[in-house]
Amino acid sequence: MNESKKEGTISTTPLSIEERYSQWKSLVPVLYDWLANHNLVWPSQSCRWGSLLDHATYKNRHRLYLSEQTDGTAPNTLVIATCEIVKPRVAAAEHIAMFNEEARSPFVKKVKTILHPGEVNRIRELPSNTNIVATHTDSPNVMIWNVESQPNRNNAALDAPTSIPDLVLTGHKDNAEFALAMCSTEPFVLSGGRDKLVVLWSIHDHIATLATEEEPDVNEGSNVGGNSEKAAQSPSVGARGVYRGHKDTVEDVQFCPSSAQEFCSVGDDSCLILWDARVGSFPAVKVEKAHDGDVHCVDWNTHDINFILTGSADNTVRMFDRRKLNNRGGIGSPVYKFEGP
């Protein structure tokens, strides 16, 4: 709240978005040990931390994944970058205070550019092989990339053909744009889409091939993106399982941290569904009214697998205990509710 004294009274008026942003910028040196900002040419639909590459005395170097969504005059891109994280009490306060939206940080370095067929809406890295990433675009297919062997297309011409995915995962009947997860225990991929389906794939048999196959011919482009056609010359893999239970678009999916067979999903039908691939393709537990609006995201507690967080358009984040979900009535009361403004 914006408080100002005038003639012995205190006037409180809500701050505008611009005022709140200006206030945050002025407090940057106080709030953070270190901050770097890097201006991109195009908006980014997805930004994702990758693996730790180097651990040094004064800073760590991480892999970073970015997307660039263009206006159609240039290809959409999946960008592989590195980000150097300066450790606390090492960064200069002067550097933190010099926040500028137009800055291009020396700590963020672009390593490789993949010309992505269609916009990049979601990026996920395979924990067991950090060179393998999956992307969601504006099509029914999930694309798998070996970022190590993919050719760098950083200086490609504006009309250059897009890069060819190393693998295409098929099984959705309609666009699957946002719900995407990689398993931490097995090379499994999970996806959800507008077709109300949750789809599971195993890429176990293809990991060795992806790691050793030759770079694709960059003169041969891909035609995926904005439609349901498969990428030119990309091998494809069909679904290991297709799970039905949602009544509207599936917005997010997540594996149980300790099991490749258990996972959950949320969607625009306000439902939270828990699945167990060992017992069939229908919900193991379904909470019909997890929120009062569309549920956009879900995450599983990595320290205690009984707890699941969901975020919704109803301005709340809710915590559920899966031991207290009633499967018969589809009733599940959150153990805690975080209210938004």
Automatic annotation (TrEMBL):
Keywords assigned: Chromatin regulator, Repeat, WD repeat
Start and stop residues of the WD repeats: 243-285, 288-321
Annotated ranges, domain Histone-binding protein RBBP4-like N-terminal: 19-86
Coiled coil: none
Superkingdom of origin: Eukaryota
Family matches, as InterPro entries: Histone-bd_RBBP4-like_N (IPR022052), WD40/YVTN_repeat-like_dom_sf (IPR015943), WD40_repeat_dom_sf (IPR036322), WD40_rpt (IPR001680), WD_repeat_RBAP46/RBAP48/MSI1 (IPR050459)
Record family assignment: Belongs to the WD repeat RBAP46/RBAP48/MSI1 family.
Protein name as it appears in the record: Histone-binding protein RBBP4-like N-terminal domain-containing protein
